[in-house]
Design a protein that fits this description.
The protein is of the alpha+beta class and about 450 residues long. It is about 60% helix and about 10% strand. It contains 11 helices and 7 strands. The strands form 2 sheets. The protein has a 5-stranded mixed beta sheet with strand order 1-2-3-7-6. The protein is elongated. The relative contact order is 0.07.
Length: about 450
């Protein structure tokens, strides 16, 4: 049984290493990473080989697994330039995955063989002799490989891959992470007590224990990854709040600039007329200058001062970049929205539209349109623009096309938050080269 225990320890170490590599795939690697990784694998396997063979004692086995796990977490720190808490996060997730694979395999083997799973002896007790390569052993080995592959693949897509979009894990809830670790340790100890002490186990009892173990592992991983999901949401919320504050300041600056431009344009137009009356400049030249100035003097009037400012500002930008901009809007219908939200909503939407149209080489196809009107008791807003290329969607919103996803894509998230704030509905679609953003607001009275 010494050889049996040795092989099983090595198999456990290999499973744990594979899971740890899977969960640390997107972490920041140190220099000479391949060499460090090979040393990490070799030292882990050596530790598993030279660790005393488990005796018929669940507490000793639990201690052995805990020590080996802690040892591998320390080795991971040598391979990755990450904070200890990030290494521990990935390590706990990996150990949970390994334990799930073990419980899942036992469940499948027991269910199909209608007998006690030989893999219950996976950690060295007398139930399963790995040296006796009979038909039952061979079948169990096949199931071990297949079930491990299925479990690891499923957990890669469900959990490990999510770390890619959260490379800066920024885990602050240490207490919750340790709670997850304690839950995993409790489930492992419970399973070991079942393996070593329940010699009169029944088929139904075994299946219940395996399903319970699998459920605990999935629940613990879901809870663990909620830590980074909640932190990501907090970061996005804080970032959007900063954007709103900056947009409020930008609104004040834009309002001041528009007022100055209108005043200056008004004075210039009068001066042009006086020059034209003196006939010192040809009438055609005066008319052309007056038309050019009128572009900056043509403030859009919707009945909402904030909306007027943002639409005037964006129309001037469209003119500069040779984008055809059309607007039909009754600004009084959104009087229930506060000024900052109006500026943020329309500013982000029109900025996104401008960014998309500017990628179109043919200037004749650069079109942006805005329509806002009443339909029954609903305020409908449509902002559309010409669009070229492909667009991926995530959670109903278009994903940013910029390479740096971490610092982009907040414009649409800000729009969505504002729409939800006023109990509205947001839909986005691309059809026949036109990007459509449609928003419905229930009509409200300004508080």
């Amino acid at each position: 049984m010494i050889f049996n225990g040795l092989i099983n320890k090595v198999l456990f170490a290999l499973q744990l290493v594979a899971a740890q590599i899977m969960f640390t795939a997107y972490l920041k690697k140190r220099q000479r990473f391949i060499l460090r990784l090979m040393c990490y694998i070799a030292v882990t396997l050596a530790a598993a080989v030279f660790f005393p063979v488990p005796v018929d004692n669940p507490w000793y086995s639990a201690m052995m697994f805990t020590v080996l796990f802690a040892f591998t977490v320390g080795l991971l720190k040598i391979c990755f330039d990450e904070r200890w808490i990030n290494i521990l996060f990935c390590g706990i997730a990996a150990y949970t995955t390994q334990h799930f694979a073990y419980m899942f395999t036992n469940f499948v083997v027991t269910l199909l063989m209608r007998d006690t799973s030989p893999l219950l002896g996976f950690y060295g007790n007398a139930i399963f002799d790995i040296t006796a390569f009979d038909e039952k052993t061979a079948l169990a080995a096949v199931f071990w490989v297949l079930c491990t592959y299925v479990a690891y693949t499923a957990f890669w897509f469900a959990f490990a891959r999510r770390i890619k979009n959260n490379r800066d894990l920024t885990i602050r809830s240490m207490s919750l992470l340790f709670l997850v670790g304690a839950g995993l340790l409790g489930d492992i100890v419970l399973n070991l007590l079942f393996v070593y002490l329940d010699t009169a186990r029944t088929l139904i009892g075994s299946i219940i224990i395996y399903l319970y173990g699998c459920f605990c592992c999935v629940l613990l991983l879901c809870l663990q990854f909620e830590i980074i999901a909640a932190r990501k949401f907090e970061n996005e919320r804080d970032f959007v709040k900063r954007l709103w504050y900056q947009e409020k300041q930008q609104y004040e600056l834009s309002k001041e600039n528009i007022d100055i431009i209108n005043l200056k344009c008004h004075d210039i137009k009068h001066q042009i007329r006086e020059i034209g009356q003196s006939k010192s400049i040809p009438k055609e030249t005066v008319d052309e200058i007056e038309r050019s100035v009128s572009v900056y003097d043509a403030a859009i009037q919707t009945g909402n001062e904030v909306l007027d400012i943002i639409l005037t500002e964006k129309s001037m930008r469209c003119y500069k970049n040779k984008v055809l901009f059309s607007c039909i809007a009754d600004g009084e219908k959104i009087s229930f929205m506060n000024d900052t939200d109006v500026y943020s909503l329309f500013g982000n939407a029109l900025d996104n539209a401008m960014e998309a149209t500017m990628k179109i080489a043919d200037e004749q196809k650069r079109i942006i349109g805005l329509t806002m009107r009443m339909v029954g008791r609903m305020v409908t807003l449509n902002i559309h623009n010409s669009f070229e290329g492909n667009l991926m969607f995530e959670n109903g919103l278009p994903k940013t096309t910029k390479k740096d996803e971490i610092f982009h894509g907040y414009g649409m998230k800000s729009i969505k938050m504002i729409v939800e704030k006023y109990d509205g509905n947001l839909t986005v679609a691309v059809k026949d080269g036109i990007f459509n953003l449609d928003i419905l607001f229930p009509l409200k009275q300004k508080a």
